[in-house]
Amino acid sequence: MTPDDEVTRWALRARSGDRDALERFVRATQRDVWRFVAHLADVGVADDLAQETFARALTSLRGFAGRSSAKTWLLVIARRVVVDQVRMAKARPRLAAGVVWEQEADRLRPTSGFEGVVELNLLLDALDPDRREALVLTQVLGLSYAESAEIAGCPVGTIRSRVARARDDLIRAVGDDSATEVG
């Protein structure tokens, strides 16, 4: 039995009211949900988005039929939560320009020796959202192309193409940074 099969089994048992299975399901998936929403949205709102994902999942757990893995089902919900957050953010008035750059500078300032992680996150943030999503699902979370396609709601070929283009974009961005540093 694979770890995904076990997580799905816990979700199905939790659906029937098994609290121990529910706790195991949440613990087994919370890290991947947080990482996924952090890469799609922003680390600063990842906790709230992950919490919202689980709130939605728990209210609709009774409807989970197990046609896909529970992890895939949960990441589909997480994706919808992020989309809803982006829509809501676009509808809200923006802060004054001075406040925005100060917040961004604070967010990007390395707090310790994790400059490489910060640089990677900046590179990922610069990717087209669809490409970033495909790359995070397949390369960071380790999902198959088929699972990633199901989560993103597109064909497998589209996921493969987005991942390839994201890799090209990252290679180009790193090359541009190297050229800037040398020149």
Structure overview:
There is one protein chain. This protein has 183 residues and is mostly helical. It is built from nine helices and no strands. The protein has helices at 3-15, 19-40, 43-60, 70-91, 97-108, 115-126, 129-140, 145-152, 156-182. α1 packs across α2 (19-40) and α4 runs parallel beside α8 (145-152). The radius of gyration is 18 Å and the shape is globular. Residues 26-90 form the RNA polymerase sigma-70 region domain. Residues 120-169 form the RNA polymerase sigma factor 70 region 4 type domain.
Break the fold down into its secondary structure elements and pairings:
Blueprint: H1 3-15, H2 19-40, H3 43-60, H4 70-91, H5 97-108, H6 115-126, H7 129-140, H8 145-152, H9 156-182
Helix pairs in contact: 1-2, 2-3, 2-4, 2-7, 3-4, 4-8, 7-8, 7-9, 8-9
Helix/sheet category? mainly alpha
Distance between the termini: 54 Å
Low-confidence stretches: 95-102, 179-183
Helix content: over 70%
The residue-averaged pLDDT reads 82
How many runs of DSSP E, i.e. beta strands? 0
Number of alpha- plus pi-helical segments: 9
The oligomerization state is: single chain
Percentage of residues in DSSP E strands: under 5%
Family: Belongs to the sigma-70 factor family. ECF subfamily.
Domain RNA polymerase sigma factor 70 region 4 type: 120-169
Domain RNA polymerase sigma-70 region: 26-90
Protein name: RNA polymerase sigma factor
